[in-house]
Design brief:
about 260 residues; Rossmann fold; about 30% strand
């Protein structure tokens, strides 16, 4: 129910659709009013109300920018780790509507991406975002100082290819900061067999503003993520958390300065 989300919905679907959407969703927020919080948002830095329509902090979001717990964790890590050096950096974010935009826009170069299999890779939308596939990026090697993503990687069938691309486009000594839903262990939930999806675990769909039915999770990722995907050329570590009932963390996949 964030203001920015309402405005985006209005631009895309019209005022009548917004009225219907608010009427349908607002009762759930009222039912969780005891979970609302008033404080300053770590992403947009406004004094705000964090509205909630679900059972945990993952469902509590800033009414201005829609930041929730995991985005605020990323914001804190970016500020603490990069601070005044951000204006010298080239940043790639795998999110067209990210509440981190205010912070990351201080970068020397800030690229926001979206994924749509029906669009040509490298094509631009009117909002300046660029269509990319994380498993086959169009950017040159060693293009970025920082990659940021929030709850994206678990939806990538070819996760090995995604991490290879992470390593390729990062400059030596630079990193990909990301969040994923915490799980007990790293395992594949589903895989593509031709054009069909083979489910290895019961299907799990996560909320997605562009997909009413949600988006399928292809992976669980747990504390052993670095053991499964790490190498001498891409090293994994938890750099913040766990915090809260959901035990949220920020992961870092770092390309070493050499090797």
């Amino acid at each position: 129910m964030a203001i920015l989300k309402v405005l985006r919905h209005a631009r895309r679907y019209g005022i009548r659709s917004v009225v219907r959407k608010v009427a349908a969703e607002f009762p759930a927020y009222l039912g969780k009013v005891y979970l609302w919080r008033i404080r300053r948002c770590a992403c947009c830095e406004r004094l705000t109300v964090f509205l909630c329509n679900g059972p945990s902090a993952e469902f509590r979001a800033c009414m201005f920018c829609s930041a929730n717990e995991r985005y605020e964790l990323l914001a804190a890590e970016i500020k603490d780790r990069y601070g005044s050096t951000l204006p010298e950096m080239e940043v790639l974010e795998l999110d067209p509507y990210s509440p981190l935009r205010k912070i990351l826009s201080y970068a020397r170069r800030y690229v926001r991406t979206f994924y749509d299999p029906t669009e040509e890779r490298g094509s631009f939308r009117s909002d300046g975002t660029i269509c990319q596939d994380i498993t086959a990026l169009t950017f040159a090697s060693e293009s970025f100082d920082l990659i940021v993503s929030s709850d994206v990687l678990e939806h990538v069938p070819l996760l090995e290819s995604a991490f290879r691309e992470t390593r390729r486009v990062l400059k030596p000594g630079r990193a990909h900061l990301f969040t994923v839903p915490p799980r007990l262990k790293t395992q594949k939930r589903a895989e593509m067999v031709g054009v069909e999806i083979l489910h290895l675990e019961p299907p799990e769909f996560h909320r997605d503003p562009l997909s009413p039915q949600g988006i399928l999770a292809f992976w669980d990722m747990g504390p052993d993520l670095g053991e499964v995907f790490g190498s001498d050329s891409l090293r994994f570590s938890v750099v913040r958390g766990p915090i809260g009932a959901d035990k949220r963390t920020v992961w870092m996949a770092e390309r070493p300065k050499s090797g």
